[in-house]
Amino acid sequence: MQAIVQDVYGSPDVLHLSEIDRPVVGDGDVLIRVRAAGVDPSVWHLTTGRPYVARLTGLGVRRPRSRVRGWDVAGVIEAVAKDVTRFKPGDEVFGSGEGTFAEYASALESRLVAKPADLTFEQAAVIPVSGCTALQALRDAGNVQPGQKVAVIGAGGGVGTYAVQIAKALGAEVTGVCSTTKVDLVRSIGADHVVDYTAEDFADGARHFDLIVETAGKLPFHRVRRCVIPGGALVIVGGDEGGPLIGGLGRLASARLLTPFVGRKLVGLFAQIRTEDLEYLLELVAAGKVTPVMGTKFPLAEAPEAVRRLKTEHSRGKAVIVV
Ligand SMILES: NC(=O)c1ccc[n+]([C@@H]2O[C@H](COP(=O)([O-])OP(=O)(O)OC[C@H]3O[C@@H](n4cnc5c(N)ncnc54)[C@H](OP(=O)(O)O)[C@@H]3O)[C@@H](O)[C@H]2O)c1
Asked: Both 296 and 170 in a single domain?
């Protein structure tokens, strides 16, 4: 099969299209004929091996242990292990797999749900990481309540476009923070207010929120947390400003350490793909409350360019590889 592989860590130039064997289906696994794969910043981290500390979590210290990139997936079940009970060959599914920038990818049965017929493979493939992250940031870490004021920083990005829509669906009054080219997009997905951070200082002290979901990581920590009312919450989702050793992980970790001293709940989120959350997101999609915002589509051979653009372009929503 064809797949996007890498043998060393480095810039997206280390990614290349290659002919390799199909994955072996282990216990609890299914083999998916990939139709579409979402492109999110974790792929850039795995490609570059940065932050370096992340390599110690089993990714491979000197070189990547797994050669094929990509997590988010939507496709058709090709084969299943003997112990798989929820799916059979021919079923259309989406969720999280291993090495999804490929014609075939393996995935744990427990990380997949059935794809509704009225959702395209491309739409489904941009839901898992970004949608689950936004949901867990708002509902679980942020405990958002109807009527609360919520700000989403990075509102036009992969996670942000879900966070704006989910916060609205949960009854919040939503302010989206983004750059000029995304103001229309963020308004169109339901934000009540939009702040163009290139024209206004979001953290000038004039605005205060019950909950802020921060996906961009560009504002100094002390400034963004002062925009949260006492007793409110700041959920740190992302940002890579911490340098090559720890990257955004330092910001995530320091959130928890600071909480006892600042009168606000500061949470560094580590999101997980859960089937119950994918089902919950599907309910919001079916109810017309959430629409996946797809960015640029790339054919499989151009996946390296899609990964390169994660850092060089201000993409709208989430890019997708069509296989
Ligand atoms: N903690 C977790 O479990 C978890 C899960 C998923 C993702 N993440 C991380 O979360 C981050 C966001 O992921 P993503 O998929 O949403 O990435 P993304 O699509 O690149 O979105 C990031 C957004 O940040 C915006 N931005 C940049 N500078 C900004 C500023 N100064 N003020 C406000 N917004 C600004 C960009 O929009 P403009 O073009 O408008 O600047 C962009 O839309 C990444 O660092 C990712 O690694 C973490």
From this structure: no
Whole-number pLDDT of residue 77: 98
Task: Report the separation in Å between the CA atom of 47 and the middle of ligand 1, taken as the mean of its atom positions.
Answer: 18
Q: Is the dihedral of CA 137, 278, 183, 149 positive or negative?
A: negative
**Same structural domain for residues 11 and 94?**
yes
Q: Which domain holds residue 154?
A: 129-268
Say if 280 falls within a structural domain: no
Atom of ligand 1 nearest to the CA of 219: 31
Q: Do 92 and 114 contact (CB within 8 A), yes or no? A: yes
**The 149-153 sheet, strands edge to edge:** 193-196, 173-178, 149-153, 209-214, 228-236, 265-268
Cβ-proximal residues to 313 (8 Å cutoff; 6+ apart), any chain: none
Is 89 part of any domain?
A: yes
Tally the domains of the chain. 2
CA 266/CA 81 separation, integer angstroms = 42
Q: Whose CA is nearest to atom 15 of ligand 1?
A: 158
pLDDT digits (tens, 9 = 90+) for 106-161: 999 999 999 999 999 999 999 999 999 999 999 999 999 999 999 999 999 999 99
Record the pTM. Answer: 0.96
Alpha carbons 227 and 212: distance in angstroms, whole number: 8
Residues 26 and 116 in one domain: yes
pLDDT of residue 263: 81
| Residues 47 and 133 grouped into a single domain | no
Q: Are 74 and 96 in contact (CB under 8 A)?
A: no
**Ligand 1 binding pocket mutation candidate from 50, 187, 237, 277 (most atoms within 8 A of CB):** 237
